[in-house]
Amino acid sequence: MAERAARLVDRVFPAVPVRQWVLSLPHRVRYVLAWDHVLSRAVAGVFVRAVLGFLRRRARHHGMTDGRGGAVAIVQRFGAALNLHVHALVLDGVYVEDGGGTLRFHAAAPPTDEEMDRVLDHRATHSSSADAARRHGQYRG
To answer: What does the pLDDT read at residue 125?
Structure first.
């Protein structure tokens, strides 16, 4: 993962700050995702959308409308392959178009512990993950 991340940051991403976010899941959820690649990708997508949404909301709070970010997520397995979690390299801020049509990057301040908890415990994130699981027949709740 470290080599791949370094290559993305050095050669693919623009020259802006990048933050790594990691989603670690309960063991019983990891087990289900380990056997369902489509569902694991769907959960990774929910996670990335939650992080990007957090950055856009923060930018709006500071007067920047229509901010857009970017990310690359990797579903990583190690050990017995059932130890699945998601690494996301996320541009640490948003791009906003100025009055002349030029995109400018606005870096974000580091998230607080409370903000991290809200991003990863947001009801929409849980609801979207459960919806993805239902569509794949892996969740009955």
So the answer is: 52
- 3-state SS of 31-74? HHHHCCHHHHHHHHHHHHHHHHHHHHHHHHHCCCCCCECCEEEE
- Which residue type occupies 107? A
Q: Are 21 and 88 in contact (CB under 8 A)?
A: yes
**Spatial CB neighbours of 44, under 8 Å, sequence gap ≥ 6:** 23, 73, 75, 86, 88
pTM above 0.85, yes or no: no
Q: Phi, psi at residue 27, to the nearest 5°? A: -55, -40
One-letter amino acid at 64 equals M
Angle 41-76-36 from CA coordinates, rounded to 5°? 40
| Angle ∠(49,55,61) on CA atoms, nearest 5 | 130
What are the tens digits of pLDDT across the range 21-74?
A: 988 887 777 778 888 888 888 889 989 999 999 999 999 999 998 899 999 998
